[in-house]
Automatic annotation (TrEMBL):
Family matches, as NCBIfam families: thioredoxin
Keyword field contains Disulfide bond: yes
Boundaries of every Thioredoxin domain copy: 34-150
Family of the protein in this entry: Belongs to the thioredoxin family.
Protein's name according to its UniProt entry: Thioredoxin
Pfam families to which the protein is assigned, alphabetical: Thioredoxin (PF00085), TPR_19 (PF14559), TPR_20 (PF14561)
Xref: PANTHER family: GEO12009P1
Alphabetically ordered keywords of this record: Disulfide bond, Electron transport, Redox-active center, Transport
SUPFAM superfamilies assigned to the protein according to its UniProt record, in alphabetical order: Thioredoxin-like (SSF52833), TPR-like (SSF48452)
Gene it is expressed from: trxA
Annotated spans, Disordered: 1-22
Length: 330
């Protein structure tokens, strides 16, 4: 096969039918059991000739399945596949993506008359119903998925995609989360949680300018939404901490004089910037306990800013708020 040859297959109506006498068609497919609805992590997978019946034919009876025919030597495939994966994850389960390496498994592509790659075929109800050839722009991929999977239920799709992004972040897979957020914003650019999520990922990766650019895209009437305000507070605190100097010097000052509240305050700012939230909170609480009037109650005021940046349900916020209440009202 060559990625320069014209693609002769047609995907409209009932065209593009494969020979149902081959291994993945005919009576064999009735033996494949239905599976439970796929989790976010199962939306993209590789398949083989032996598993094609389960992964594509049978699965397409539950929801549309896109099959990406590719090969390691195909340059346009390397461009298309990541875009497909991102768009499918952002669609939140409306479609699945199954990838087939035609070098290792050529028979299915041959049955479908594929002469050029990359080629993507959409299956519904066990049959190929639509498709495209070549590396197309992301916007066209999204339109294709909407066409195949249906435009209905846009809000549930976004909700499921946001949940998948949160799951990826919790698992430490920030690249997948960023891809999902990015794809969501292509479809629904005013999605506040996606703006905040992508902005925070960029900021945590050291790309402050990128984070600012993402935040700037928020609608004017939503710029003060809590997730965006929390990210701006986090960025402001980090900027303050960056100007405070060497934490080792601050710790030396505290060792020499435990009542050096300015050193303790500055150290708390640095600790917060490094992600040491509990230590930062404990240092500010120590100032509140020792001298509530210091710097016009500045330690307590800064701690409240930390709470805003961390989020009201953050573990450090909840723990420090309990300690602060104990100090103030005991």
């Amino acid at each position: 096969m060559s990625d320069n040859n014209p693609f002769s297959g047609s995907f409209g109506g009932n065209s593009g039918q494969y020979d149902q006498s081959v291994q993945y068609g005919g009576a064999d497919r009735a033996k494949v059991p239905l599976r439970e609805a796929p989790a976010a992590a199962d939306l993209v997978k590789d398949t083989t000739t032996a598993t094609f019946a389960a992964d594509v034919i049978q699965e397409s009876r539950r929801q549309p399945v896109l099959v990406d025919f590719w090969a390691p030597w195909c340059g346009p495939c390397k461009q298309l596949t990541p875009q497909l994966e991102k768009a499918v994850k952002a669609a939140g389960g409306k479609v699945k993506l199954v990838k087939m390496n035609i070098d290792d498994h050529p028979s299915v592509a041959g049955q479908l008359g594929i002469q050029s790659i990359p080629a993507v075929i959409a299956f519904k109800d066990g049959q190929p119903v639509d498709g495209f050839m070549g590396a197309i722009p992301e916007s066209q991929i999204t339109q294709f998925i909407q066409k195949v999977g249906g435009k209905g239920g846009g809000a549930p799709q976004i909700t499921e995609a946001l949940a998948a992004a949160r799951e990826a972040r919790e698992a430490g897979d920030v690249q997948t989360a960023a891809d999902i957020y990015d794809a969501i914003l292509e479809q629904a650019p005013e999605t506040i949680e996606a703006i905040a999520g992508l902005g925070e990922i960029l900021f945590d990766a050291g790309d402050s300018q990128g984070a600012e650019a993402v935040l700037a895209k928020a609608p004017e009437d939503k710029k003060d939404a809590p997730p965006l305000a929390a990210l701006r507070a986090k960025m402001a605190l980090a900027a303050q901490a960056a100007a405070l100097g060497n934490p080792a010097e601050l710790e030396r000052r505290l060792a020499a004089n435990p009542n050096d509240h300015q050193a303790r305050f500055d150290l708390a700012m640095v600790q917060n910037a490094r992600g040491d939230r509990m230590q930062a909170a404990d240092n500010l609480l120590a100032i509140v306990k020792a001298d509530r009037t210091w710097n016009d109650d500045g330690a307590r005021a800064q701690l409240l800013k930390f709470f805003e940046a961390w989020g009201m349900t953050d573990e450090a916020t909840l723990a420090a708020r309990r300690k602060l209440s104990s100090l103030l009202f005991s």
